[in-house]
Amino acid sequence: MAADNETPEPHQGFLARLSAAETIVLAIIALIALAGLLLIGKGFYMKAKAEVSQVLLKRTFEAQLHGNPDGKPWPWADFQTAAEISAPRINRSAIVLEGASGEALAFGPAWLTTTPLPGNEGTSVIAAHRDTHFRWLKDVNPGDLLVLTRKDGRRFLFRAGESRVARWDESGINASASGHHLALATCWPFDAIEQGPMRYIVDAELIGEQRPVPLTTGSISK
Amino acid sequence: MFLDDEIASTKTRQNEARWGMYLALAALAACILMFIGLMTQASAQTPDAKPQQMAGYVRPNDMGTGALLFPSKEPGYFVEAPRLATDVQIDVNGPIMRTRVTQRFENPSKGWVEGTYVFPLPEDSAVDTLRMQIGDRFIEGQIKPRQAAREIYEQAKAEGKKAALLEQQRPNIFTNQVANIGPGETVVVQIEYQSAVRQSNGLYSLRFPMVVAPRYNPQPIVQTVDLDSRTGYAVSDPVPDREKIGAPVLDPKANAKINPVTLTVNLKAGFPLGDVKSAYHAVDIANLDDLSRRVTLKGDSVPADRDFELTWKAIEGKSPYAGLFRETIGGKTYLLSFVTPPAAAEANAKPVKREVVFVIDNSGSMAGPSMEQAKESLALAISRLKLEDRFNVIRFDDTMSVHFPELVEATPDKREDAIAYVRGLTADGGTEMLPALEAALRTQGPVQAGALRQVVFLTDGAIGNETQLFEEIQKNRGDARVFTVGIGSTPNSHFMTKAAEYGRGTFTLIGSESEVAARMGELFTKLESPAMTDIAASFEGASAGDITPNPMPDLYRGEPVVLTAELDGTQPQGKLQILGKAGDQPWRVEMDIAKASAGQGIAKLWARRKIDDLEASASTIADPATLDKRIETVALAHHLVSRVTSLVAVDATPSRPASENLSETKLPLNLPAGWDFGKVFGEEPAGNAPGKVDERDAALESRTKLAMVTADRMLAAPTARAAGLLAEANNQVALPQTATEADRQILIGLMLLAFALLAGTTFVFWRAPIAAVVNAGVRRRGR
């Protein structure tokens, strides 16, 4: 494994010919390599978890729309799905979970339960990780259509507005503002590797509700 | 060594080796430097992410005493309105006390504002009255269902009228929003509430929150923000151990001058009084007669950064062990009864051996600060165990594991072992509580003779199968007591209160890290004292009444049984019977209802407790709307503020003739009957001793200074309407952290690999020369 990288077995008995000190040095090097591999593995595991859980969540959400409200994406899941959000122009979508507590954000975007349900009066907020589910948020342009399907089957169309950058505690989002708004938030800058205080926010305004629920995105019916 | 010959053969090779060595070292140094750079950058970033507490700016959840807050220019922060005067009057009548707090504030700015008056109160207080004077308007609050009250308030606000709305945020935190305060206007707020006197070990006590908010606190205070969707404020319980704040607050001496507090306690204990003491404040105590005292804060006394606490005792041998009081309202009789179990019953229940099973939730929903709090709490609990106790630790997510195969003696090394185990836990996975509960209740072997079995559950309660869990507790608790500890900013209180009730234990809520020590301390005291159990109350020969609390909780050392009841009719007959068990010894008390003496405010106390009972029964009522309706009915009938009812006041009758021009008179002349604002007004310096004048001037000066500073920081609006909009804009949503560590970990991992590769290659190619250098060094030293 790790040690193979550095000790390509040039001649037989290579290890046997090492002195004690050299063995220790080699072991340390091997350990460092192993730690590196573990970290890489963990990082990719997080990303894989985010992807796989979305696939499972999508399946559960479909079932929920078809009248099976108790379905769980996996037996030990301890959260609820809330909605599905999609951006048809760039062909992206994600299942939104209820509440951003604990680990929920690792599995999908989360609707902050302190804000109104998307589509209701007020400004509701959906947040997700910039390096997984909301990686595509930077591609959402002003004027883009955002489609949000709630668990109760109602489907709302939002028009994305300008995006902006703000500190996490100075978001300028007022949950009880008048009108029907949706704010999508993720961390900023997108390519940073550390966690930071800045957030990238896309404000969107409700433009209408799509009545029946055919499972395709059709034209706007106002 | 076999390399030695090679070294000896040539000197030039040794030189080469040295160069190689330097090269390898340089590569190593470069790698280390890169790592250090990466780490420091990361840590330099973190403090940035925390909210900064700015001098002079506060947040609603920082308030330790009643305060009027105005939106500030700094989004999300508030400034405290200069508090000109505070008057507190507490009337103690037997076991009941009524508190009236009157405070005068000023809007120092040149614009219109919407202020928020935040005040913490004791947990069991029943708030029923709100009166305000804003400028020249008097308004009195009416009780309304919460939603209706808010609509009335919003409408009045939009119309530019003066209005106030008093809402309950938590059972012990209330906010009062005041709309349309004009430039330079003075606001007088008066609230009244009812609560029960606390009794323990024959000692009676009352507490009034008086902590000066940490206004000049340079330390960043990090709090879990739990936003209320309706108001947008994050309001949390005040920190219980004030000493810990340790912040340089306003110098109390200076503060007293700009913020005078007067406090009067009219103490009518109902029994011959012995010692009356104030723990933290200097007081004057006037003896009125054997049964009553008047307690006032000393003139030059300053509001310390402590709550005001008054304790009193009966004279030796005259301490009442039981009491029964009644009040008749609306054709119904309300009873208040307290009984202290005889000391004999307690004496034979000495501190016993305990068998404690700790259950800790390490599921994914606990990730972050919750897990840290849980770990810290549990470590503290384990370290408090005594040698004769036995214990075990169970952790669960969607899997579970039991740390020791069976209950073990709490020897120091076993405790260390368990604490290390707990500290190593990480939050991950789902929540499957049932297996852990089963393990805690069923598989820990029989309870040893004379031992007390306790199960302590630390969780945020994020579960779906509540009913199943309740059943498990009811069926299998045996002699065990289940204590729940709620962790995090929004634990599932309903579940935990109910679980503790079924398990005949208590529920402890830990909202933030700073509360861990104090709250767990309270819990330990309960865990370590023996209890009076199986308490039940009933009426004999009287029409069945509605008794609260229901069911009766266990009692801990020195606590009395305190119950309130509602009975039909104005002249009920019969007997009140209370049964209980101290260890194995049964205990029973009977009281004749007809002999009860008259009391006041009992109905309100009963209503408040009834609401608590209803809230706790949430899980058994399927439809939340039904529960809300029931609470609303009780609260409206007794004029109480609750989760579903609020007090709203809109520009009531201007209490002066319209012809009179009021804007010029600063002080109100004719207050409506029953209104007593006098104490916070009229403090003209005339007739004072000459020596005091300087002091007053100084006070005035610092007050003006403070007012200017406040005005400077306030976000005032030119019109009343704009003030409302500004206040709205201040209600911001805080966004969660939305970056994973995945990218960083992958990057660090790659760098580690690269480093290993580099080092490995160097090693393979330069093995011989490096060894030569090392050996040479060794040999030189050897000589």
Can you offer a commentary on this structure?
Chain A is an alpha+beta fold and 222 residues long. Chain A has a domain at 73-210: Sortase, Chain: A, CATH 2.40.260.10. Chain A has helices at residues 2-6, 20-65, 104-107, and strands at 81-87, 92-98, 110-111, 122-127, 145-150, 155-167, 180-187, 198-210. In chain A, strand 2 (92-98), helix 3 and strand 3 form a beta-alpha-beta unit. Mean pLDDT of chain A is 80; it is low at 1-10 and 216-222. By secondary structure, chain B is α+β, with helices and mostly antiparallel strands. Chain B is 31% helix and 29% strand. Chain B is built from 16 helices and 36 strands. In chain B, the strands form six sheets. In chain B, strands 1-3-2-6-11-10-36-9 form an eight-stranded antiparallel sheet. In chain B, a hairpin with a 2-residue loop joins strand 13 and strand 14. In chain B, helix 6 (369-383) packs parallel to helix 11. The longest helix of chain B has 41 residues, at 742-782. The two termini of chain B are 17 Å apart. Residues 6-10, 39-55, 212-258, 653-675 and 680-696 of chain B have low confidence and may be disordered. The chains are: A alpha+beta (222), B alpha+beta (783). The interface between A and B is large, with 79 and 77 residues.
Largest sheet of chain B: 8 strands, antiparallel
Strand content of chain B: 25-35%
Mean pLDDT across every amino acid position of chain A: 80
Strand order of the largest sheet of chain A: 1-2-3-4-7-8-6-5
